[in-house]
Amino acid sequence: MSEIKVPPTPRLRRASVSERSDRIAKLEALRKLGLDPYPARTSRDHMINDILATFKDFEASKKLVTLAGRLRSLRAHGNLSFADLEDDSGRLQLVFSKQEVGADKYKLFEKYADVGDFIEARGTAFTTKAGQQSLAVSEWKILTKALRPLPDKWHGLEDKEEKLRRRYLDILTNEELKDLIKKRSRFWSSMREFLIARGFLEVETPVLETTTGGADARPFITHHHALDIDVYLRISVGELWQKRLMVAGFDKTFEIGRQFRNEGMSAEHLQDYTQMEFYWGYADYTKGMELVTELYRHVAKETFGKLNFEINGFKVDLEKEWEVYDFTSIIKEKTKIDITKTDLKEIEATLKKLKIDYDQKGFNLTRGIDNLWKYCRKTLSGPGFLVNVPVVMEPLAKRQEANPNFVQRFQVIIAGSELGKGYSELNDPIDQAGRFKDQQALREAGDDEAQMFDQDFVEALEYGMPPTCGFGISERLFSFLCDKPIRECQIFPLMRPRDDQTK
């Protein structure tokens, strides 16, 4: 079939209101002909890239191969029809000749095949006169009849809302998005490989909890009908559970999983997202910072192939020596507030002066200091570690030996945001019980992000937990390295239902 010349201009099918009805009519016609438009089995024996990788060999051997995939374009040219077939590995042109495939099957294809349909095609590899690598089809069958037309070939989905709502179509027409999803997978797998190579054991801990712990956040609440109790979706990836595993004798554990926080939405915040947390026995927060620096460099290199990024207008070099930021000094420098001596009245006046909006429900000194810090951090490019945070702001971290009013905590700062947090874990059960009590008092005063008193965890600590460093990082890091809003970096972000969703 080497004499065939491909027509230069493809025929693009225009979507219309009646096209779905037309396709349903074709579906019914196929069934009347005794053809199943949704068969379960296919005889595919090669992926398209298998053929393209050694095309000359397939062409010379004239070996029959069977491909399967989605039709991405159709164009007719007399007694010939041309189509682009796409699978997960690549795209190849199909050539249907009435002489080669037979008059009946050719007519069937011409009459009932549409762009978007999945088909199986059997034939031999050949190159057209125009130099186009193709498959000369001798047999074909429908695998899935698509009832809706695909988005425009050249423009895809243009409305931002529809891009997120019909994410599958945006992925189908947007190679950059498809590549982002592959990078997302590599991001987490490279993190997993890094930790396993250093002796960490991957574990799974409960998603449903009777007491939330491990973070300051508002939880989602649901009802467990079998036990007839209210439970919470976890707000951390098993922090208090993984520390129980330290009590149980494990030295190094980690978990990658989903966590849920019933909080506001922004370019940096989601309610349902992936997080990694590790716990490292016999290590403190200084060792944690060393390991985290190495981890971030490894993940960035493996995922993006580089260590230099432009994020939110900042130039970030992960390879350079990381900065160390002092919490108290930075706030004092940028707001004139000394957090070791301030009170709620002074903080509220400063927030007003700086035009910083904040949630007044349950507002207290801790929340006020945190709002000041969030204002200050926006100017820090990083990469660096924030240290020397007051004990009132971290109920799960060990106190500093030289200054018990501050904790052994570090936060990763990149491009004006917090992209990871770790600390020397508090393993003094009496101190932990006291801090839980203080947090519970804040909850009762209206701060629904304060932590709950977890008596079972305190009891576990009383059996003894070794010195431990814990650390957690969410998919926010991935979105920052992509320099995109975090919602756009999820595969299927949560969307409010359309008004006609149930119609």
Question: Topology of this protein?
Answer:
Layout: H1 19-32, H2 48-53, H3 55-61, E1 65-77, E2 80-87, E3 90-97, H4 98-101, H5 103-112, E4 118-127, E5 133-144, H6 160-165, H7 167-173, H8 175-197, E6 201-202, E7 208-209, E8 221-224, E9 229-233, H9 239-247, E10 252-260, E11 272-281, H10 285-304, E12 308-311, E13 314-317, E14 323-326, H11 327-335, H12 344-353, H13 365-377, E15 384-387, E16 389-390, E17 406-407, E18 409-414, E19 417-424, H14 429-444, H15 455-462, E20 468-474, H16 476-482
Parallel strand pairs: 3-5, 6-10, 14-15
Antiparallel strand pairs: 1-2, 1-4, 2-3, 4-5, 7-9, 8-9, 10-11, 11-20, 12-13, 15-18, 16-17, 18-19, 19-20
Report on this model:
- The longest helix has 23 residues, at 175-197.
- The chain is an alpha+beta fold and 503 residues long.
- The chain has two domains: 19-150, Beta Barrel (OB fold (Dihydrolipoamide Acetyltransferase, E2P)); 169-322 and 382-489, 2-Layer Sandwich (BirA Bifunctional Protein, domain 2), CATH 3.30.930.
- The strands form five sheets. It has an eight-stranded mixed beta sheet, sandwiched between helices. Strands 1-2-3-5-4 form a five-stranded mixed barrel.
- It contains 16 helices and 20 strands.
CATH topology of the largest domain: BirA Bifunctional Protein, domain 2
CATH superfamily membership of the largest domain = Bira Bifunctional Protein, Domain 2
Largest sheet: 8 strands, mixed
Count helical runs.
16
Weakly predicted, low-confidence segments: 1-15
Alpha carbon gap, first and last residue: 50 Å
Question: Which sequence of strands runs across the widest sheet?
Answer: 6-10-11-20-19-18-15-14
Compute the number of structural domains.
2
Strand content: 15-25%
Mean pLDDT across all amino acids: 91
**CATH arch. level architecture of the largest domain:** 2-Layer Sandwich
The count of DSSP E runs of length 2 or more, i.e. the number of strands, is 20
Helix share, percent: 25-40%
Radius of gyration: 29 Å
Approximate shape: elongated
Helical/strand content category = alpha+beta
CATH class (first level) name of the largest domain: Alpha Beta
